Amino acid sequence: MHPRRLAAALGLALSGLAQAADYASLPGGRFDSALPQGDAPDAVVTVGVAPFALRRTPVTVAEYARFVETHPEWRRGAVPALLADARYLVGWRGPLEPPPGAAARPVVDVSWFAARAFCESEGARLPTWLEWEYAAAADETRTDARADPAWRRRILGWYERPGSAALPDVGGPPDVHGVSDLHGVVWEWVEDFNALFISGDSRTQGDPDRARFCGAGAIGLLDRENYAVLMRVAFLSSLGAADTAGTLGFRCARAQPGVSP
Fold first, then answer.
1. Is residue 131 in a domain?
2. CA-based nearest residue to 244, from 56, 73, 76, 2
3. What CATH number is given to the structural domain containing 169?
4. 136 in any annotated domain
5. Number of structural domains, the chain?
6. pLDDT digit of tens for each residue in the chain (261 aa)?
7. Rounded CA gap, 167 and 60, in Å?
8. Long-range contacts of the stretch 154-162 (C-beta < 8 A, 24+)
9. Is 36 contained in some domain?
10. Is the pTM of this model over 0.85?
11. In a domain? residue 7
């Protein structure tokens, strides 16, 4: 069953008390996605991104601890295996005991279902891939720095950090939108992660399951020099909604007032 339908069927659209969270407003606009779109798999397609608001930083361990305190169904040991795998919050010492010294670090080892429930609890949602890609293209002074080789080298340097390294606290230097940590901290869930099985490469023709394994879903990327995007699409497209990982976190998004989501 599709993850969204499963969540709805199990009554997981939470409406708990909203927590205070800091969101930045992004203006949206016309944007050249690195992914092929619709019926034009081999051409750059400019898409429209509606204005939206995005959490300035990933959700932290402290924020998630407050969430599970008020939503006991999402505590470790209480979540059905259908909604989170065995690694869910594996580093926590108990259902309400996150790792010591980790309060300001991004929460990890959370499933798509859990991330979505958290965002709904504060009247938000997970960002779409295009919203995340649009936001992540910015640097400190430009809304789209992707054509800058120095920016690309810096992004790749962040992604080369050993996976065993301790995660940093959130709150790095903000970009031009006032958003931090879109690169170099954790991978991040997006709402439509399971729609990234896109390829214009002939090697996948006639075998749609090829796009589900080993990053094959990313080989149709139009901008193949943007390896950071390729790696992220490959990683997200390999996941199931109940999967967790020690380098996978999330942040939430909202539609701007007066703009349809």
1. yes
2. 76
3. 3.90.1580.10
4. yes
5. 1
6. 556 554 544 444 433 334 468 999 999 999 988 877 655 555 567 889 999 999 999 999 999 999 999 999 999 999 999 999 999 999 999 999 999 999 999 999 999 999 999 999 999 999 999 999 999 999 999 999 998 999 988 888 887 776 667 899 999 999 999 999 999 899 999 999 988 754 434 333 333 333 333 333 444 555 556 777 888 888 998 999 999 999 999 999 999 866 554
7. 11
8. 155/183, 155/184, 155/228, 156/227, 156/228, 158/183, 158/184, 159/183, 159/184, 159/227, 159/228, 159/231
9. yes
10. no
11. no
Give CA–CA dist 47/194, Å, rounded.
Answer: 19
Residue where the block lists tokens 């969540």: 7
Q: Which two tokens stand for residue 225?
A: 């020099």
Residue ranges making up the domain that contains 251 = 22-255
Q: Which amino acid is at 236?
A: L
User: What span, in angstroms and rounded, lies between the C-alpha atoms of 257 and 255?
Assistant: 6
